[in-house]
């Protein structure tokens, strides 16, 4: 296993390629991608539907293996790790927010945060759960069931869960796109605050130009390659 570098960028990709193979056909999706994300940076990732944004997020999160190239999280080359080491790295250093919140319907907001965090192997006190919900502006919703939360509130609970392991890299795949723009701004504000306070590196997939404009920079995935969007 390579030694982590002390001051490494939280996220580094080098020459990452990925293709899907179905019967008799190979579809290249990511072609030789390089990327560096610094602490405290929000990079927005845009691109047409099917351009490979979710594939890239899955590769970074260690849910999919790249065919070639390396993903470094805090200087650790993820491909050098065993499955259990990779799972540990993901559980301790990466936060993931997906499109549909994914809350357990019969547990309150606070119970959802506590459960998912414990499933990731991290013990959280109830005070910590409250502070996580406070950070996303939901202290007063702690005892609400998901059906009593608005879409934006549910997404902020998902964000609180993603932040519970104090990750260095936060990945958000279309986590705000389906929200109306004022709600999206509230969720984004919570992401921005976490980014600033914790020095997180954030990669935020969005199809909204308005949201992309709020990031530090915008990258476009086009024909398998990453380009700096104008
Ligand atoms: N599990 C899979 N098997 C085969 N092809 C896939 C799979 N997942 C995604 N694809 C294909 O890979 C391409 C990129 O998909 P995806 O990463 O989901 O794009 P995006 O998130 O930008 O919409 C699409 O053409 C999609 O159909
Ligand atoms: Mg997608």
Task: Give a short summary of the structure.
By secondary structure, the protein is of the alpha/beta class.
List the helices and strands and how they pair.
Layout: E1 11-22, E2 25-37, E3 41-46, H1 53-61, E4 68-73, E5 76-77, H2 83-93, E6 94-97, H3 109-119, H4 126-135, H5 151-163, E7 169-173, H6 181-198, E8 201-205, H7 209-212, E9 217-222, E10 225-228
Parallel strand pairs: 3-8, 3-9, 6-7, 7-8
Antiparallel strand pairs: 1-2, 1-4, 4-5, 9-10
Q: What is the correct CATH architecture of the domain at 11-104 and 166-228?
A: 3-Layer(aba) Sandwich
- CATH superfamily assignment of the domain at 11-104 and 166-228? P-loop containing nucleotide triphosphate hydrolases
What's the total helix number?
Answer: 7
Name the helix and strand elements from N-terminus to C-terminus, one letter apiece.
EEEHEEHEHHHEHEHEE
Q: Going across the major beta sheet, what is the strand order?
A: 6-7-8-3-9-10
CATH class category name of the domain at 11-104 and 166-228: Alpha Beta
CATH topology of the domain at 11-104 and 166-228: Rossmann fold
Termini distance? 38 Å
Name the poorly predicted regions.
Answer: none
Mean pLDDT across residues = 89
């Amino acid at each position: 296993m390579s030694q982590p570098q002390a001051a490494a960028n939280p996220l580094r990709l080098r020459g990452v390629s990925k293709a899907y193979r179905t019967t008799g056909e190979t579809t290249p999706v990511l072609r030789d991608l390089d990327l560096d994300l610094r602490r405290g940076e929000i990079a927005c990732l845009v691109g047409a539907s099917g351009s490979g944004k979710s594939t890239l997020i899955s590769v970074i999160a260690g849910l999919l293996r790249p065919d070639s190239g390396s993903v470094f999280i805090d200087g650790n080359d993820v491909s050098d790790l065993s499955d259990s080491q990779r799972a540990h790295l993901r559980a301790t250093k990466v936060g993931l927010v997906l499109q549909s919140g994914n809350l357990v319907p019969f547990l309150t907001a606070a119970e959802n945060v506590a459960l998912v965090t414990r499933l990731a192997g991290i013990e959280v006190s109830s005070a910590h759960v409250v502070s996580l919900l406070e950070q996303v502006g939901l202290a007063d919703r702690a005892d609400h069931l998901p059906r009593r939360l608005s879409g934006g509130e549910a997404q902020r609970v998902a964000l609180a869960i993603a932040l519970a392991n104090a990750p260095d890299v936060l990945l958000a795949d279309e986590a705000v796109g389906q929200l109306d723009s004022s709600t999206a701004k509230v969720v984004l504000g919570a992401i921005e605050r976490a980014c600033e306070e914790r020095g997180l590196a954030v990669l935020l997939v969005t199809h909204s130009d308005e949201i992309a404009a709020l990031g530090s920079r915008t990258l476009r995935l086009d024909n398998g390659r990453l380009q700096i969007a104008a």
